Structures are given as C-alpha cells and as structure tokens.
Amino acid sequence: MKLKNFKSKKLFKIFLIIIVFSGKEVFSNQAYFDLSDQEIEIETDFNGKEIIIFGLTEPGFDTLLTIRGPEEYKKLQKKERIFGLWMNNNKIIYRNLPSIYFVAASSPVNKILNQESITNDSLYFEPMLVNLITQRNFNFSKENNQNIWSKNLINIKKKNNFYKEYEIKIVDDKLFQTRVFFPANTIPGNYQINIYQIKDQVIVSKKNKSINIIKSGIGNELFNLAHNNPIAYGIICIVFAIFSGLLAAVVFRRL
Questions:
Q1: CA-CA to 228 of 20 to 30 Å: which in 34, 68, 115, 169?
Q2: Beta strands at 39-42 and 202-215: parallel, antiparallel or unpaired
Q3: Residues linked to residue 165 through DSSP beta bridges, in sequence order
Q4: Is there a contact between 62 and 199 (Cβ–Cβ < 8 Å)?
Q5: Nearest to 63 by CA among 191, 167, 162
Q6: Residues 77 and 34: beta-carbon distance below 8 Å
Q7: Which runs of E-coded beta strand occur in 46-188?
Q8: DSSP 186
Q9: Is the torsion defined by CA of 9, 13, 16, 22 positive or negative?
Q10: Confidence label for 24 from pLDDT (cuts 50, 70 and 90)
Q11: Is pLDDT at 13 greater than 60 in this prediction?
Q12: Would the pTM of this model clear 0.70, i.e. be above it?
C-alpha cells in the first residue's frame, strides 16, 4: 500500500513538471488528465480502493468529473397496507442503471451548468435517472411521483457509498486533483471516467478514460464460473454444502 501511494505521488509530481514546462497554447481549452491506477484487483481481503485523478485546467474554467460503473437491473418496491396486510404493491424497474456513479466538480454543478445541460448529459444523480429506461405498474400522482422514487433510490445507493459526490481541488489555477474511493463491494467491470472543461456554463471540451476492476485469485475463478457456467457452479455449491454437513456431523460425534 505504501509503495502504491509513493507511485501515485511520484506520478502526480511528474505530471506537474510536464505542465509547467509545456507551452500553454498546446493544452488550451483541453481536459487533459490521468489516473493513479488504471486497474484495481479485488482479492479476498479487499477493503476498497482510493484512486487519485489529476489533470490540467485553465484559469477561469470549471472542471467536472463523472465516473459510471457497469450497468445493472434494479427493482424498487413500495409496501402498502391492503386489507390489513402489508404487501409490495407499487414497483419501478430501472434498466441501464449505473452500479456506481461518482460526481466531482470544482464548483456546485448547478452553478457551472444550466439544468438542460445537466439533464441531457446526465451530470448529476436525479437528472441521470430521468434518462434511464424504467418500467412501472402504476401511474404517478402528486403524492407518489417520480421524484420521490428517484430520491429513495439515490439514498439507498448513497448509504452503500455507490453514489457519491466529491470535490475537485484546483492548484495554482492550472491543475486539478480529486480522490475517489471504490467501496469493498464494488462490482467488477469497466468504469468510464469523463472529464469536462466548462466556461460560462458551456462544455468546452470532454475527455474520457476507463479503469478496469477485476477479481483475482480463487475469487476470480468462482466469479467467472458462476457467470459463465451457473449450472456447474450450483452443483459444486450443493456438493460442498453436503460435504461440509457430513464433516460437521463427524466432528460433533467425536466431541
């Protein structure tokens, strides 16, 4: 861990030197950035991982960053009292929902961009949900509207640290830096990182990079088996459960 942190700091210092000695016109109005890690390995003792994102900015420009994780299927249900019993009645199914969604900005997002741009490019939590494919078994009403469901979903994600807002720090009006943390239960896959340079509420440039999160060791083998051959994985689990039960029975008899 100390070695990785040392490499991250060294990489950031090298980037600073390159910026200082490079011609300003070469980087004008461009969102150049880099990551401290291009890949994260999830091992059995994985407790989460922090990465540093840093890059170039221009005086008078704002910087916005988004990180979107692998898309997933999410169902939200609401319990209602029917004939004296609490039952799941209303439900909404979200499709193409980012499993992780991080936002970082040098200033509040609603101050550096207008609402139309935020919604069209899905640059904040609630506006991002507006653009998703959803399916529901009820009609919205004043007391049960889309905003209520969106806030509930976002709160659930935030409690698990899957949706989070970070701050971008600006150094000498030339460089930006932020740190984001991927929680222990992060889903393996490809994560898209977008950096926007903004001037007078207009997106001037956009750059993209990605970071891969993979399982390693025996956890990776089990993960691939469960997804690529679920039948074989199920049989192995059943056999293991039977063997564990028999072994426990033998041990307790001897005791």
A1: 68
A2: parallel
A3: 103
A4: yes
A5: 167
A6: no
A7: 49-56, 62-68, 71-82, 85-98, 101-105, 133-136, 163-167, 169-171, 175-182
A8: P
A9: negative
A10: very low
A11: no
A12: yes
d(CA 210, CA 85): 48
DSSP percent split of the chain into helix, strand, coil, nearest 5: 35, 40, 25
Question: What tens digit of pLDDT does each residue of 184-231 get?
Answer: 999 999 999 999 999 999 999 999 999 999 987 665 566 666 666 677
Helix (H) or strand (E) holding 174: none
Residue 47 is encoded by which pair of tokens? 């407790």
Distance CA 167, CA 200 (A): 20
Six token digits for residue 12: 């950031």
* DSSP tag of 143: S
Residue 37 half-sphere exposure toward CB, CA atoms < 13 A: 20
The residue among 28 and 38 whose pLDDT is bigger is 38
Q: Is 196:22 a contact under the CB 8 Å cutoff? A: no
98: which strand partners? 71
- Tell me the three state secondary structure of residue 51: strand
> pLDDT value at position 135?
82
Residue 57 is given by DSSP the state: -
Rounded to 5°, the CA angle 227-230-232 comes to 130
Contacts of 18 (CB under 8 A, 6+ apart): none
